[in-house]
Design a protein that fits this description.
Rossmann fold, ProC C-terminal domain-like fold, 278 residues, 53% helix, elongated, 8 strands, single chain, alpha/beta
C-alpha cells in the first residue's frame, strides 16, 4: 500500500513518540507528516521546530494533504473530532486510531463512507521505542492496511495482530502493564531500604535485575516457569521469597489486576461512546 503523507489529529506524547520513531527509522520523511490539534498552537510550533514536520489547524487541509490519518486526541474529544473531519473523509483515506476504548464500529458509524480503519493499543514505552502494540482491523480494512499499520508501529516497538474483541484485555495486560512493573519497583525499593540497602544502590540493582530477566525471557525463548525453576533451589533463598509471594496470593493479585483493568476498559469504552454518540 503506497502512502504519501500521514496526518495526526492530536499532538500529545503518543503522537510525538510515533513521529520520532517513524523519522528515526526512516519510515517516512518529516515533511510528509502533518500535525493538527484543537487549539494548542504552541505545542504545534514545538513539534514543527523539533522534528521538521508540518503543522496545521484546519481539518479540510489536513485531510486533503494526508492519505493516512492517525486519531490521537483524548477519547473524550472523539465525537467533536470525528464530526469535524467527516465532511472531508473519503474511501481513499486510511484511519489509524489509538483512542483507548473507542471501537472501530463507533468510528465507522460516525461517517457516511467506507473508510478503512485500524485500531491500535500501544503503551507508554513508545516514548523510548519499546512499546508493545496490538492492532486490529475494522470492517473495511484489509490485510494491506493492517500490514502497513504494523510496519508503522514497529518503528516504536513490537507489534501483534489480534481480533478487536481482544483489545480491552490487552489494554489491561500491556496497555496498563508498565505501571504494574513500576509499582513493583516501588515496593522492592521500599523493601530494600527496610533491609538496610540505600535507595540509589537498590534502584540500580532492581533495574538491572528486571532488564536481565526480560532479556532472558526474550533471548532464551524459554518459558517463565522454566526460568523460575532454574533459579529456585529447594530450601534456598529464592524458594523462601517465593513462598511468601504464594502466601500473600501474588498470582491471584496479578490475575485480579489485569481482569479488573480489562473490565474498566470495557466500561470506559461504553461510557465514552454513549457520551460521544451523535
Amino acid at each position: 500500500m503506497e502512502m504519501k503523507n500521514i496526518g495526526f489529529l492530536g499532538a500529545g506524547s503518543m503522537t510525538e513518540a510515533m513521529i520520532e520513531g517513524m523519522i528515526t527509522r526512516q519510515f517516512i520523511n518529516p515533511d510528509q507528516l502533518v500535525i493538527m490539534n484543537r487549539s494548542n498552537s504552541h505545542r504545534l510550533a514545538e513539534l514543527e521546530e523539533k522534528y521538521g514536520v508540518r503543522t496545521i489547524q484546519n481539518a479540510e487541509k489536513l485531510l486533503r494533504r494526508s492519505n493516512v490519518l492517525v486519531l490521537a486526541m483524548k477519547p473524550i474529544d472523539a465525537a467533536q473530532a470525528l464530526e469535524t473531519i467527516a465532511p472531508y473523509l473519503t474511501n481513499r483515506h486510511v484511519i489509524i486510531s489509538v483512542l483507548a476504548g473507542i471501537t472501530t464500529s463507533y468510528i465507522e458509524e460516525s461517517f457516511q463512507t467506507k473508510t478503512p480503519i485500524v485500531r491500535a493499543m500501544p503503551n507508554t514505552s513508545a516514548t523510548i521505542g519499546y512499546s508493545a502494540t496490538a492492532i486490529a482491523r475494522g470492517t473495511y480494512a484489509n490485510h494491506e492496511h493492517l500490514l502497513y499499520t504494523q510496519q508503522l508501529f514497529e518503528t516504536i516497538g513490537t507489534v501483534v495482530q489480534v481480533k478487536e474483541e481482544k483489545l480491552n484485555a490487552i489494554t489491561g495486560l500491556s496497555g496498563s502493564g508498565p505501571a504494574y512493573f513500576y509499582y513493583m519497583v516501588e515496593c522492592m525499593e521500599k523493601a530494600a531500604i527496610l533491609n538496610g540497602i540505600d535507595q540509589e544502590t537498590a534502584r540500580h540493582l532492581i533495574i538491572q535485575t528486571i532488564t536481565g530477566a526480560a532479556k532472558m525471557l526474550s533471548e532464551t525463548n524459554l518459558q517463565a516457569t522454566h526460568l523460575r525453576e532454574r533459579v529456585t533451589s529447594p530450601g534456598g533463598t529464592t524458594q523462601a521469597g517465593l513462598t511468601m509471594l504464594e502466601k500473600y496470593k501474588y498470582e491471584e493479585a496479578i490475575t485480579a489486576c489485569i481482569t479488573e483493568a480489562r473490565k474498566r476498559s470495557e466500561e470506559l469504552g461504553k461510557i465514552l461512546e454513549q457520551q460521544n454518540h451523535f
